[in-house]
Automatic annotation (TrEMBL):
Keyword field: Aspartyl protease, Cell membrane, Hydrolase, Lipoprotein, Membrane, Protease, Transmembrane, Transmembrane helix
Originating gene: lspA
Entry GO CC: plasma membrane
Chief site of localization: membrane
The keyword Transmembrane appears for this protein: yes
Localization (cell): Cell membrane
One Gene Ontology term of the molecular function aspect: aspartic-type endopeptidase activity
Name of the protein described by the UniProt record: Lipoprotein signal peptidase
GO biological process, one term: proteolysis
Alphabetized PANTHER family for the sequence: LIPOPROTEIN SIGNAL PEPTIDASE
Transmembrane segments: 12-29, 73-92, 99-116, 136-156
Function statement: This protein specifically catalyzes the removal of signal peptides from prolipoproteins.
Pathway membership: Protein modification; lipoprotein biosynthesis (signal peptide cleavage)
Domain of life the protein comes from: Bacteria
Length: 175
């Protein structure tokens, strides 16, 4: 195993630090929104952007929001499993895969930020509202933005990574 494909080991700490930063920013922004905004009353920032406090007891786009309460524990369980899986992946990830590590850290931080809400409040606090010409995107939060950005970066990384390169860089010479 060459030095570049060595698992992160202790070098994973900055990536976990980024995940913690996402959690802190997410929770702080949700606390501000909850204390300064009236529920479901939009505060216009720009013609296309409002701050609107919402409580989402479902998943993305309020999926299963009216399911009767069992979804809180179901989505919390999924978030715990995903967070553990992402953490293990991050530790085992080869050091040179920085873009993938960045994406995993953002997704991890976002998942834990929303998990925290679900466990502590029974719902996720959303407050960012984007709209155009009367069409509204579902309200979201910093954790959701981190998860989406992380997923987009993961997709980008998959297009940028050539098969075989991450395991054996010498394969490039044979092609």
């Amino acid at each position: 195993m060459n030095g570049d494909s060595t698992p992160n080991g202790l070098r994973v700490l900055p990536w976990f630090g980024l995940a913690i930063l996402v959690i802190v920013l997410d929770q702080y922004s949700k606390q501000l929104a909850s204390s300064l905004l009236d529920y479901a009353r939009p505060v216009e920032v720009f013609s296309w952007f409002d701050l609107t406090l919402q409580h989402n007891s479902g998943a993305a786009f309020s999926f299963l929001a009216q399911a009767g309460g069992w979804q809180r524990w179901f989505f919390s369980g999924i978030a715990v499993v995903i967070s553990v899986g992402l953490s293990v992946w991050l530790v085992r990830l080869p050091r040179e895969q920085r873009l993938l590590a960045l994406s995993l850290a953002l997704i991890l931080g976002g998942a834990i930020g929303n998990l925290w809400d679900r466990l502590a409040l029974g719902y996720v606090v959303d407050f960012i509202s984007v709209h155009y010409a009367g069409s509204y995107f579902p309200a979201f939060n910093i954790a959701d933005a981190a998860i989406t950005t992380g997923a987009a970066l993961m997709l980008l990384e998959s297009f940028l990574t050539r098969p075989g390169r991450e395991t054996d860089p010498s394969l490039e010479d044979d092609q």
